[in-house]
Amino acid sequence: MSAAITVVGLGSGNPDRLTLGILKTMQRASRVYVRTLSHPVMAALEELQVKLESFDHVYETHDTFPEVYESIASQLINLAKAEEAGSEVVYAVPGHPMVAEATVRLLRERCPKEQVALTVLGGESFLDEAFVRLGFDPIEGFQLLDAAELNSHMVQPQLHTLIGQVYDMFTASEVKLALMEIYPDDYPVIVGHALGVEGEECIQQVPLYDLDRIDGYGNLSLVYVPRSDDAGLRQRSFARLHEIVGILRSPEGCPWDREQTHESIRKNLIEETYEVLETIDEDDPEHMQEELGDLLLQIMLHAQMEEELGTFTVYDVIQSLNDKLIFRHPHVFGDRSANDAESALQNWEQMKQEEKRRKGQNPQEASALAGIPRDLPALMKAYKLQKKAAKVGFDWEDIHGVFLKIEEELAELRAAVAEGEAAEAQALELGDLLFAVCNAARFIGADPEEALSRTNRKFIQRFHYIEEQLAARNRSVKDSTLEEMEALWQEAKSKAGEDGDIPGEHL
């Protein structure tokens, strides 16, 4: 390779920290390019008569940082190829070339393909100054995060955390919001500007909520969050939940938890699901938070039992779910489009069929009713069975045919009761009627389970009204007549603005 690029680091900002080797490399080079002139060592380099050409103008010609970095890398490669044989292009970047320097990463990827020799020399990183000026030892556990890419799930409170490239107050605000998902609003954090640069360094501790309310942010700014073993912070992590469930199931854990099996807690999963549904119906977010936790515990326990057998862990469950969500949403994570919910659902169903084919299953050979859980509640299962059958054309043309079917099944139920048929026969006729009514729900676009749940809630509210009104009269439903209760029922309906009768002889 005749073309060559040498990358050097300009350090964290103190010109006294520049290495002799880097200075010599820049002084002997015919041309030295810098990513930006916005760095404290530039004045010292001018005094040493190092001729510099910057790429600052590239920032003005592109809308995003990735575009800027791509452009700089391309220009450097072209410049290197244009140089005479035996010459090299020197490219100087702030800090250490291998720390938070996107242009160097691009050069490392592209230079081998372009037949350009690339040499990377070191340089003092802002990390070196951070360890000294902020006073922590990274061996205790340390993570470096990019403010532009920061998400709360990246932050681990038990590690020293440095967040670099906090360029301005807007970026600081984004950092603050991410950290507030983990830490209390008043948690102390440290902001550092120009660490190690004489006359420019500024280190201040502020409560987290003030992070975007202070001045001084720029190219040499960072945020430091000291490590913490605070139990309250650990309690907010999924890893801690996994750890706790593992302890409960361990020999040193809870005797009751150790004895449980998939079968013994099977009913708990169902019960907790319905308790979550109740909080949704009641629109009670605080109670919902608690019940969702109880439901999550059941999932964790089942996953822990399999982890103990070596079959899978809860992290395998999460990976499978993530893979499925990405695969079944090609209109979000792929190249398909979906302009409405119906299109998105079609994509979902198509990808489900593709999953089956990849597993060696032939969707064409499966029953049209396949895929419905065996133990669904009967009303919900009937609804799903009818939807599956309708997809292959087994359906009425319109709701008029459904109404005729309901009338037919009602007549057969009446006949079974009138003729004194066996209880089982009467129950079968009742099931046929309910199945037909479920079809009516499908035709009007209503979920029968939800419709019946709403009616149940309405019945409970009105019956409670009867009990409350009777209690105010020192009476109870047990010593009241149907006529008295019906009058109060009508009163409850009137307050709700509806008409109708209570269950009884009038139905």
Helix-strand layout with pairing:
Blueprint: E1 3-9, H1 20-28, E2 32-34, H2 42-47, E3 52-54, H3 56-61, H4 65-82, E4 89-93, H5 102-110, E5 116-120, H6 126-134, E6 142-146, E7 160-164, H7 169-180, E8 188-193, E9 202-207, E10 221-225, H8 231-234, H9 238-249, H10 255-259, H11 266-281, H12 285-309, H13 314-327, H14 330-333, H15 341-358, H16 378-391, H17 399-418, H18 423-443, H19 448-472, H20 482-496
Parallel strand pairs: 1-4, 1-5, 2-3, 2-4, 6-7
Antiparallel strand pairs: 7-10, 8-9, 8-10
Helix pairs in contact: 4-5, 9-12, 11-12, 16-18, 17-18, 19-20
Describe this protein's structure.
The strands form two sheets. The chain has a five-stranded parallel beta sheet with strand order 3-2-4-1-5, sandwiched between helices. It has a five-stranded mixed beta sheet with strand order 6-7-10-8-9, with no helix packed on it. It is an alpha/beta fold. The chain contains 20 helices and ten strands. A hairpin with an 8-residue loop joins strand 8 and strand 9. The model is unreliable at 499-507 (pLDDT under 50). Helix 16 (378-391) crosses helix 18 (423-443). It has helices at residues 20-28, 42-47, 56-61, 65-82, 102-110, 126-134, 169-180, 231-234, 238-249, 255-259, 266-281, 285-309, 314-327, 330-333, 341-358, 378-391, 399-418, 423-443, 448-472, 482-496; strands spanning 3-9, 32-34, 52-54, 89-93, 116-120, 142-146, 160-164, 188-193, 202-207, 221-225.
